[in-house]
Amino acid sequence: xxxxxxxxxxxxxxxxxxRILAAKEPASSLxxxxxxxxxxxxxxxxxxxxGETEEGAAKTGRLRLTVAGLLLVGREDVLKQQLPxxxxxxxxxxxxxxxxxxxxxxxxxxxxxxxxxxxIEPYNRIYTLKQGLFHFEIPDFPEEVCREALLNxxxxxxxxVSGPVYVRHFPDRLEISNPGGFFGxxxxxxxxxxxxxxxxxxxxxxxxxTRMVERAGMGVKRMFHILLSYGKEPPGYESGPDFVRxxxxxxxxxxxxGDREESGIDENFARFVxxxxxxxxxxxxxxxxxxxxxxxxREIDLSEAERILQRSENEAREALSSMVLRxxxxxxxxxxxxxxxxxxxxxxQLRKSVSYSLFRRAEAAFAETxxxxxxxxxxxxxxxxxxxxxIVRTLLRVSPAQAGYLLSSLVKKKRLVxxxxxxxxxxxxxxxxxxx
Length: 436
Fold this sequence. Notes:
This protein is of the alpha+beta class. The chain folds into four domains: about 5-75, no CATH class; about 90-250, Heat Shock Protein 90 (2-Layer Sandwich); about 285-350, Winged helix-like DNA-binding domain superfamily/Winged helix DNA-binding domain (Arc Repressor Mutant, subunit A, Orthogonal Bundle), CATH 1.10.10; about 360-430, Winged helix-like DNA-binding domain superfamily/Winged helix DNA-binding domain (Arc Repressor Mutant, subunit A). It is about 40% helix and about 20% strand. A hairpin with a 6-residue loop joins strand 12 and strand 13 (about 340). The chain is elongated.
C-alpha cells in the first residue's frame, strides 16, 4: 500500500476510465457514483480502518491509493517517482534492426493503451472479406486482441525488474514483450489450459471491473479464438527467466515492388467460419485449434490433440469425439492407433486451405485431381510440365508405394504418360485425353 491519497489521482485519467466503462457497459451502476466512490468500488482507493466503535462497527479512516490505482489513474509525476521502472516503448520497425517511429510513454496504463492504439492504427491494414451481401473487415491486428495483449503485458510484468514494456511493430507481425518471466508454473505449453494466476492480482481485478480485459482466464483464449477465426496464425509465446514475448502475426506476405500483395489471411477458412456462425453452428476454440493443425497435417491423434489443446487426455478425447459427432472429423483405426482426419464434407469445403491432400481408397479421386491440378498450375509449355513420385509424396503426404499406385492409375486411364525409368521416371499430361 502506498502512502498516497486521492490527491495523487489524475482527474483526467478518472474521466478516461469513466468513458471506457460507459462504452463497455453503458448500464453499469458504477457510472452513477462520485469519483472517490467509483475508485473505491474498483479497488483503486482503499479506506484505511482506524479501529472499532463501542458498538463494534469499524471506524473509517482516510482513503489510500493502491499500486494498481496509481498505475491506472495516478498523476504522471507521482507515477514516475513511485514506480520508476514503469515505462512502455512503441517502435514501428522498417526492418529487423531499424525503426522509423518511436513513442515513449510513462503515463498511466489507460493513456498508454490509447497512445499505442493510435500509433498502430495508421499501419494496421484492413482486408475486406466479401460474403454474399455482407462485407467483413479483417485487420492485420484486431484491436481487441492488441488491447488484451498489451494490458496482459502490464498486468503480468514484474515491476521489481527494471525495463520497459516493448511493442515492436513489424510489417508482418507485432511483438509485445515485458520484463519478468511467466508467474508461477505458467509456460507457453500450458498457457491455454492453466488456471488463471497473476503477479499483480489487484490490477487484474480492477481492469476486469472496468471491462478492459476479459474475465479471469478468458483473455488469452479470446485472442486465440479471434485470430484463428480470421484464418490467421495463433498467438506465439516465448519466455525466459526475465522476459515474456508475445508475437501476433498479420499473415501478410510482403511482395516485391509492383507485385500484388497477398491478403495475409486464409480467406477460404474465414468464409467457412462465417458460414458456420450464420448457420448457428459456431466453432469452439478447440475446433479451431484442431482445424489449424489439420490444415497442415493429414491427421491428428489423441496425444497431439492433448498438446495443441493443452488439456488432459480425457478432455482431448471428448473434444475430438464432439467434432466427430458434429460431422467435422472422421476417426480411423482402433484404440491406441486411432487417428482423426477432416470429414469428407469439411475437406471439400476447406480444400483451398489445406496444404496436403487426403489419400485413401475412397478418396483416390481427390488425389488424382490434385496431381492433374499440379500439372495445370506449372508454368511453361505443356510438354515440359511433369510430375514425379517424389513430388506426389510431398504434395499428398503419402508413401512411395501410394504415390506409385496413383501415378500408375492415371497412366492406365491415359491421363498421364510415363517417360523414363527408376529415379528418372517423369509423368507428363497425356495429349490423348478421352472426353469420357
